[in-house]
């Protein structure tokens, strides 16, 4: 057995193990990958291949399952899970990567033989030979003509929510295509601790603190290794920039990040606060995420403390803060580029629970803000129930709150309410962040 396992390509084995971890342990692709790459000793091109094979397979799972269903004489639910994982990996090599058909098929067959059985390997060989007879576009026309959900591998309900949020059917294919593009790594220089000029890469167009890496391991960048800079999507950077940039009346020394985990926005906010003589309280309900926040803030100035607390019942005095950020838990449908498994985990019923939580968090944040102070409400989702409808509901219930326009110089980013901002991956190259600025009257 040991000799046969050594014959299996390590990069493909890593991808196979990632799919298993996502399926069995509810792991996140981007968190499962680094440890497996280290375990199998992969770096450089081999690591990049394993990363694209795992992430791309999960992104395109919906389309590949539709194709496999047309090539298998029984329901996919009857196929052993490990075999189905391997078949999906084979599909991505055949239909989504520049891998020769004979190599894609033979390496997948080797993988199934090693991990399952010789009989299952024969089955995989027959199925993948059928798959290899057409390219992806031809298969989609055959199995689901005109179906955007299959063509772009999104659940149908997600496609509909994104269509409603976008408000422009003509741009919908571009958005869905952008969701399937692997995002480039973006770094943030934390002001007062690092400068953008010392980071390698191309300056981001909208955030004054970001650069986009051409490639390589961000952990090897000295400023990142030392905690003076970090990996952070430009959209997330803009949330912190907006929260820090809004004007407040009077004192401006007490800042709060109400949902701070895992800590990227808190680290940028703390750096901005320190430059202005203010301090940030970072609050996070889940203990393990609060630990990540503490790690992100290690060595940073402008930090009043990290508190493990429920944002809907916070242990702070009313009207205690000058500005509050609410980066609310959400469906995450704006970050499908970097969280490929999210599209298959979320369900329509998740929305109802999340919206209740989002309203409670925003209401709590407003109670914690003094008159004249501001609250920046943000979600990594463009879904209208989580954006426009949450803000409208809170405004309808409170006479002491006003919605104010955000001053972000980002083109073509008008949100679903006047003055709000909605970023998009296909327009701005960022996650689909929503931002709304509310002032306590």
UniProtKB/TrEMBL annotation:
Domain SAM-dependent MTase RsmB/NOP-type: 164-441
Alphabetical UniProt keywords: Methyltransferase, RNA-binding, S-adenosyl-L-methionine, Transferase
Superkingdom as given in the UniProt entry: Bacteria
Gene3D superfamilies linked: NusB-like, Vaccinia Virus protein VP39
GO biological process, one term: RNA methylation
GO MF annotations, alphabetized: RNA binding; RNA methyltransferase activity
Binding-site positions, S-adenosyl-L-methionine: 259-265, 284, 310, 327
S-adenosyl-L-methionine keyword on record: yes
Active site: 380 (nucleophile)
InterPro entries for the chain: MeTrfase_RsmB-F_NOP2_cat (IPR049560), MeTrfase_RsmB-F_NOP2_dom (IPR001678), NusB-like_sf (IPR035926), NusB_RsmB_TIM44 (IPR006027), RCMT (IPR023267), RsmB/NOL1/NOP2-like_CS (IPR018314), SAM-dependent_MTases_sf (IPR029063)
Family: Belongs to the class I-like SAM-binding methyltransferase superfamily. RsmB/NOP family.
PANTHER family per the UniProt record, alphabetical: NOP2 YEAST -RELATED NOL1/NOP2/FMU SUN DOMAIN-CONTAINING, RIBOSOMAL RNA SMALL SUBUNIT METHYLTRANSFERASE B-RELATED
Function description: May act as RNA methyltransferase.
The protein, known as: rRNA cytosine-C5-methyltransferase
Species per Swiss-Prot/TrEMBL record: Nocardioides agri
């Amino acid at each position: 057995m040991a000799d046969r396992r050594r014959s299996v390509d390590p990069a493909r084995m890593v991808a196979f193990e990632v799919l298993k971890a996502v399926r069995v342990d509810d792991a996140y692709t981007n968190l499962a990958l680094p440890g497996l790459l280290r375990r199998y000793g992969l770096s450089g091109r081999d690591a990049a291949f394993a990363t694209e094979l795992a992430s791309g397979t999960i992104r395109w799972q919906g389309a590949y399952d539709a194709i496999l269903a047309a090539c298998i004489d029984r329901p996919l639910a009857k196929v052993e899970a490990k075999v189905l994982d391997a078949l999906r990996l084979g599909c991505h090599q055949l239909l989504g990567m520049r891998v020769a058909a004979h190599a894609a098929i033979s390496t997948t067959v080797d993988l199934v033989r090693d991990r399952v059985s010789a009989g299952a390997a024969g089955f995989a060989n027959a199925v993948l030979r059928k798959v290899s007879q057409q390219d992806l576009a031809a298969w989609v026309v055959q199995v689901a003509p005109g179906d955007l959900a299959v063509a772009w591998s999104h659940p149908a309900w997600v496609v509909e929510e994104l269509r409603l949020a976008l408000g422009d059917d003509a741009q919908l294919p571009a958005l869905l295509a952008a969701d399937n593009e692997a995002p480039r790594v973006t770094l943030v220089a934390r002001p007062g601790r690092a400068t953008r000029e010392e980071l390698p890469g191309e300056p981001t167009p909208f955030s004054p603190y970001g650069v986009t890496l051409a490639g390589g391991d961000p952990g090897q960048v000295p400023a990142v290794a030392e905690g003076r800079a970090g990996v952070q999507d430009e959209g997330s950077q803009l949330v912190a920039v907006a929260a820090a940039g809004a004007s407040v009346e009077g004192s401006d020394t007490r800042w709060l990040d109400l949902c701070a985990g895992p800590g990227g926005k808190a680290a940028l906010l703390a750096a901005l606060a320190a430059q202005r003589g203010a301090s940030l309280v970072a609050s996070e309900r889940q203990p393990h995420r609060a630990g990540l926040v503490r790690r992100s803030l290690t060595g940073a100035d402008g930090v009043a403390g990290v508190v493990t607390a429920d944002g809907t019942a916070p242990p702070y005095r009313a009207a205690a803060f000058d500005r509050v950020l609410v980066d609310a838990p959400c469906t995450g449908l704006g970050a499908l580029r970097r969280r490929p498994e999210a599209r298959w985990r979320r369900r329509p019923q998740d929305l109802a629970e999340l919206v209740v939580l989002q309203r409670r968090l925003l209401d709590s944040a407003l109670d914690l803000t003094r008159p004249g102070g501001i609250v920046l409400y943000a979600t990594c989702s463009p879904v209208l129930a989580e954006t426009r409808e949450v803000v409208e509901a809170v405004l309808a219930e409170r006479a002491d709150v006003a919605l104010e326009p955000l001053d972000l110089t980002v083109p073509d980013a008008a949100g679903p309410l006047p003055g709000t901002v909605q970023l998009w991956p296909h327009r701005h190259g960022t996650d689909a962040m929503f931002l709304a600025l509310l002032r306590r009257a």
